[in-house]
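Retro notes - structure team

What went well: the batch runner handled both jobs without manual restarts.
What didn't: labels got mixed up in the shared folder, which is why I'm recording both outputs here explicitly, each with its sequence directly above its tokens.

Job 1
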Amino acid sequence: LPTAPANAKTALQFNVGFWADQGETLEKRFTAWAAQ
């Protein structure tokens, strides 16, 4: 299972602080790119 402790060691980490700081800017950039 993806949530098994053994698998958590190699799982990608989700950085909440990064998304709190950069999420809005990245969403705007992505939306502009997707609209092209």
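Job 2
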Amino acid sequence: MTNQMSEALTAADSPVEVIRVPVGSVSLSGLAALHDSPRALVLALHGGGLHAGYFHGGAHEDLSLLTLGHQLGYSVIALDRPGYGTTTDIEDEHVSLSGQVALLVEAIGHLASAYDVGAGIFLVGHSFGGITAITLAAALGDDTRLLGLDVNGVGAKYDDGLRAHLHSSTFGDAELPTEFRSRRSHWGDEEFYPPATFDRSLDLRPHAPVPQVERIDAVRWPERVAHEAARVTVPVHLTFAEQEYNWAVQPDDIDEFAGLFVNSPLVRSDVQAASGHNTSLGWAARPYHLRAFAFAEDAIVYQRLLGARQ
């Protein structure tokens, strides 16, 4: 955790605190902004090579999903996914996509019993955290605690150029080609972000090592996405950055991805203007986060209507 983030957490007016969530023999670390009487609990899952601080960006106060959610009456918890934070040394079986989901199902059980979750639990996932959120929602099935999910920075298939490298005989799972590890591929135009974002002396970017097994699961996602999406039975919101270079995000690609959620009662998709892959770290974070909370409100309404009809 950077000094700037530590200062933000200890500020007298900050609702954000460090949290530990016990699951089995380990504890997942993270950040939390807990409301006394929340409308719902939002569980946020960061992408690969990042950590929970992604949702509490230190470059500007408008970036924080946690602070905004608390202001809107939500409890928000951003967890370090298995393999990150306090669990960097756990076995690969718990860091695989299926292993992560198993631990997160346990985590949801703990959160639902330890905290007031209001109308239920709403998932927000970015990049590989979006992959995890979709798979977690699929695993939860008809669990009435789950309201819905909002995912961004993920699609059904990779950009053509990246896909060619991923499936070439010369490409290993450990490294991406240089052009897909560049700043532009994950960030887009630098003007999309507060000036402090790329100041190395401040160290504000929430970077973390990527577990090798996670890289392998990421490569295989296009083979798995249709199966997992079809098992999701709650409302789904898909958001794509204006400058998304990792995934195929032409209108037909977005429609194809949305169409995979055949058992979801409500599926919406949006393209977020003035944003790159790491949307929650840029100026577009606030409009994107507001839209995510608005969709959470839609999910709450849907749940109430569903309950009234039963």
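One thing worth noting from job 2: The CA atoms of residues 28 and 81 lie 7 Å apart.
We'll revisit the folder naming next retro.
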